[in-house]
Each structure stands twice: as structure tokens, then as C-alpha cells.
Amino acid sequence: MKILISCAILVLAGLGPAHAQTAMAPSSREQIRLTFSPVVRQVAPAVVNIYTKRVVHTAASPLFADPFFRRFFGEVPGMTRDRVQSSLGSGVLLRSDGTVVTNHHVIKDADEVTVVLSDRREFEARVVGSDERTDLAVLKIEARGENFPTLVLGDSDKMEVGDLVLAIGNPFGVGQTVTQGIVSALARTNVGVSDYRSFIQTDAAINPGNSGGALVDMEGKLIGINTAIYSKDGGSNGIGFAIPTALVRNVVDSITKGGKVVRPWLGIGGQPVTADLAQALKLARPVGVLINNIHRDSPAAAAGLQNGDVVLAVQGYEVEDSEAMRFRLATLPVGSEARLTVLRGGSERQISVRLLAPPETPPRDRSDLAGRHPFSGATVVNINPALAEEIGISSGLSGVLVLGVKRGSVAHRLGVQPGDIVLRVNEKPVPTVAELKQQLQGERQRWSITVNRNGEVMTQVIGG
């Protein structure tokens, strides 16, 4: 069971940027008695508490929620009532104008957002933008003339396993709290908290209410935004996760400039290199992503990438799997160049790719289908790179995607599912929504539909 939380990391004073060469374990009682208080005093004012409220409409009685009752009696005065639902979390001030970063799940569906500073001053805040796929959101405090304390964004890529850290947040709503631990692991990609996974793992105690809090290094710089913990009972078990600032920086910049996140597009599909593949490719160990699909109009195609290439690193950072590669690309702004280390024909080469925003080509042509056919009640759309990036599917896919299925409809009863890619109707290819609609015209006694569901091609015959 996962509980969403927040973390902050601090490191002992005295270790500079070159701490990788000079760091050592304490060797005396005096060194063990060193305190974190100077760093806490420096960073704590920039870590805030966030309180949200949203109005939830509920039935005054279970009877009023019954569809049978509504069908015959319609809306009855007083049948619904409003209930205010509150939640809490944490956040970090990044700019003196009141720009705050927190988790998406902290402010999701909120009608009111209140930010409380460490000195107990309260301010209303508005949501500038939010990105569910990275679980990050940007707020702006509504206050003129204020000069707020801030945290400086550090370099999460310089953190090492074993570095001391502090987590700062508002656990269980008790107020600002500081806990200490170490970096337990880096680049955790198997944590299903968001779509872009390369988390910093820490054993610093973090609990519900810490979500969106700060993770800082020993120089008082932010290196992560606390997001989740593994827990069976809702408390800290010493396994917490933070979003690295390598990703936070790009998401915040994108939201503050345009109100939403625009991620760069490479235009490839691939699979992680397994032990068997590594042996066949003569790699010393399983690492990298084997390219098996390239969009013909993509930056990858323009740069000369080929099917069968293995991407070993992005910007010099090794990528162990597809999640790690996706994360590294997401840290780069649109319009920048990505330097890929690629294995081709047994030798490594460097390939530069200019990253673009994913295009809306072909147009989505979103359509709600109705009529006497197997897809009646389904919502379909043309797959394009922008949609693929938006919903998290391979940018190499094309065709007609089922976005949703109305409950109780013909499509629902026949087992059509969101995520299905429609390949053929009555043995004829339907690469676009327009061609699918054309094939669905007219009445037939027998239908044959073929879809791609999670990589498996399935054919269903209905009637006759």
C-alpha cells in the first residue's frame, strides 16, 4: 500500500561540491555531535504548509442516489447536500514572488488553496498549472509587495547513496517537522507513483502530509520533492521517494511559461535490454533500450537513429531501461539537443538529436460513435505524437484509439475497452477515424472487428 507524502534532504555543513572525494565517516565523539540546525534555520522558512478545500456534492439519502428513484421522481429539493472536504500537504517556495512547487495530488480538484508559512502567516494561492504525469504542480501566492524566502534548486544528479538528508514537511498536520536520514537509493524506476519514474529513495521519516515538501542537500539546496512512501499502516517504514530536481526544474519552467507542461519528443519505441539480449549484443551487462520502432517524421528519424540501435546513455547518464530514458529526456527543454550514446553494429557512437514538441499530426478527430454497429457507445480518436505523449503510450503507434466506452452501450457489452487500437473492420484496415466511420455505415448481420489490446491482436466475430 502506498501513502503519498513529502521529503526534504539536507547534508552536514563542511562538505563542498567535491564531497565525493572528501566525504568520510565521523571518527570522533565531537564529530558525531555535529548539528543540522544551521541548515534547518536556512531552509525551513521556504518550506510551507498547504491546506486545500473542495466542495463535494453528495446525496442526502441513499434513496436519492438510486437511478430508479430519479427516473420516476426526477430532482427533489434537498436531495443533495454540499460537504466541504479538506486535505493537507506541503510545498516549497522557489521564487521570491511567491511561486510554490508541490505535488499534483495535494491540490487536485481543490476549490480553495491556502499556503501557510513557517511564521504562521496565511495566504490564498492559485494553481498556475499542474501535471498529473509527473505529480507536480505550481502555485502562486496572492500577495503583492511580499518578498518570500526561497530555496535554491540544487543538482540531484550529484547526490550519492549514503549522503545524509533531512525531510521537511507537515506530517499528519502537526506542523512543520524535520527528520533525518540518508539517500538509500537513486533512480528508482519501479515505483508506480507517476509516469516519469526515477526517484530518490530515502529512509528519512516521512508521513502523510509531507507530500510536496523539500529534500535538500547539506548546502541547503533543494534536490527533491517528496512524493510517496511504502507503508502498510500509513506510517513511515523507512522507504520514501522524492522527485529529483533534474525533473522538477523543467516542469516548473514549462508551467510558469505556458501554464502547462510541454515535453520534448524523440519519436521512438523500444524495449529494455534483457540478459539474453545483452549476450546477443555482446554487452557486458543488461543495460540500455533497444529501439524497435521509429516514427517516420520524428527527431529520431531526422538524426539517423535506426531500428536495432541500443540507447545506452542520454547526456552522458546511463539509462538502464525505458523508464530511465524517458525520465532523462523529460529533464530537457523543447528545442534543446539530446546527446545519445548509441550501440550500433558492436561499436558505440554519439548522436545528437534536436528535441521538438510532439505534433498534432494527424488531427485527433475525436468522435463519439453511435448507430447499429459494434462500436456504438465508444469514443475514438486518431493517434498522433501529442496524444501519445499525453496519455503515455508509445509515440511509434498509429491508428484509431478507443479513448472511452459508455457503460451499458453496445461496445461495452461486446467487450470493447479503452486503450484498444482498432485495426480492421470486416477485414478492411481502418487507419483513421474517418475510415472507421465509413466502414461502420450501413446495417449488417455479421461483423468482424480486429483490435490491438496491449500488444495482442484480437479478432471478434459478431452475428451471422
Gist of the model:
With 464 residues, this protein is of the alpha+beta class.
Account of the protein in words:
By secondary structure, the protein is an alpha+beta fold. It has 3 domains: 1-262, Thrombin, subunit H, CATH 2.40.10; 268-354, PDZ domain (Pdz3 Domain, Roll); 367-463, PDZ domain (Pdz3 Domain). The protein is built from 12 helices and 27 strands. The protein has helices at 19-22, 29-32, 37-43, 67-73, 104-107, 245-258, 275-280, 299-303, 322-330, 385-391, 410-413, 433-439, and strands spanning 2-4, 47-59, 80-95, 99-102, 112-116, 122-131, 136-141, 152-153, 164-169, 177-188, 199-202, 214-216, 221-230, 240-244, 268-272, 289-294, 310-314, 317-318, 337-344, 347-354, 367-368, 378-382, 400-405, 421-425, 428-429, 446-453, 456-463. Strands 21, 22, 23, 24, 25, 26 and 27 form a 7-stranded antiparallel sheet that branches. β6 (122-131) and β7 form a beta hairpin. The radius of gyration is 26 Å and the shape is globular. The relative contact order is 0.11. The model is unreliable at 1-20 (pLDDT under 50).
